[in-house]
Amino acid sequence: MTLRYSTDIVIFGGGVAGLWLLNRLRQAGYNALLLESETLGGGQTLASQGIIHGGLKYALGGVLTGASQAIAEMPARWRAALRGEGDLDLSAVKTLSDHYYMWSNAGLRSRFKTFLGSKSLRGRIDAVPPAEYPAFFKAATVAGNLYRLPDFVVDTPSLLATLSVPVAQQLLHYDAPSLEFTRSAEGSIQQADFTAAGQQVAITARQFILTAGEGNKSLLEKCGLGSVQTQLRPLKMVHLTQPNMPEVYVHCIGDDFSMKPALTVTTHPQDDGSATWYLGGQLAEAGVEQSDAEVIADAKKQLASLFPWLDVNAAQWGCFLINRAEIAYDDNNRPDDAAMLVNHNVISAWPTKLTLAPVLADKILSHLQSADVVPGIHDPSIGELTQQLSAPVMGQPRWGSSS
Ligand SMILES: Cc1cc2nc3c(=O)[nH]c(=O)nc-3n(C[C@H](O)[C@H](O)[C@H](O)COP(=O)(O)OP(=O)(O)OC[C@H]3O[C@@H](n4cnc5c(N)ncnc54)[C@H](O)[C@@H]3O)c2cc1C
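^ inputs. structure came back:
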């Protein structure tokens, strides 16, 4: 027997984008279902460093574009949500660090870049007096400059857990290869057919929204929209875990001419009392071309040079490849804002950054309003559907596994 169900909106993909959006849609009165093929957050979201950015990256380039202005407002918007005063109540989300820092350990060029960064951020970066250094930098054995950014760091597992609670009844796990869409002659999607927990399911909806990260490509193909251009930009992230690992949240500005942080460090406490340092930045960009042993050797070298007082002799090291999934623009420009494309009743969407998930939801809600997609379909068989099928489970951060 096929289980049949109708709703206003079906979302594919339960990372931060899909879960944030589902919460906003629910608040706006829409009936919506989210279909997840793997685990919640198990794509990019749980691999991210959880930094809520305020636009340093763009400021280091010396240009304040529209997008960088938009991202500059994000730390304040997230902080309001974390206080329970924003568009979503994130007061249960754990903040790993209230501040994110920038460190340049020496050298005229890196100091210059740091200066440039602070100037174009117009007072939003504060030089930290040594007396106020966090414990790790107080112990520094080399001279350097420390700056405090408006950015801060959230614990992504607690973010996903908090986002999934209010919408728990609207989350379904399904078998992605079984998915088939029925399309109208003019190209709209009318129905999604798939199996879930061994059951055949048919769902009709007015709107289908794709927030499946890397999975958007194959979903777009199934929707007959294979011409939509997407791109993957890989990173090889390094992690090291040991007992008594100090808590550090910092971009380290390098001494070459690259305008990107050489190393981006976040610290993630583990259940056994140890902590993991998770390393991104240029290290992870360059690491894509390196073997695991090479990128780990590079990380060890950089840490020894940046933080000679750090002892990582007992650390377990690991690394893994992970793709950032984004829209691709014809002019080869990298997206720097949340992106959404509309084809008939299919919206494909990429937040580009975890930080920008709220902006993506704004854009989609505003599109729905302008396209006159108003809440209206309430099918009481939702209870039957969610009872018979299974909910997706929460993913695990990949930096938790050390080699
Ligand atoms: C290493 C790394 C570090 C990062 N650090 C930061 C950071 O510090 N700050 C920041 O702002 N951004 C950061 N980002 C970017 C950020 O992680 C992403 O922009 C964001 O998590 C994307 O969220 P998403 O929900 O669109 O995608 P994802 O988190 O990838 O979620 C997509 C979901 O869709 C599911 N799915 C896939 N295929 C299908 C299908 N066919 N049907 C149904 N579901 C499907 C997946 O299982 C997954 O759960 C980082 C990214 C990476 C890779």
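The chain is about 25% helix and 30% strand. The two ends are 46 Å apart (CA to CA).
thumbs up if we can close this ticket
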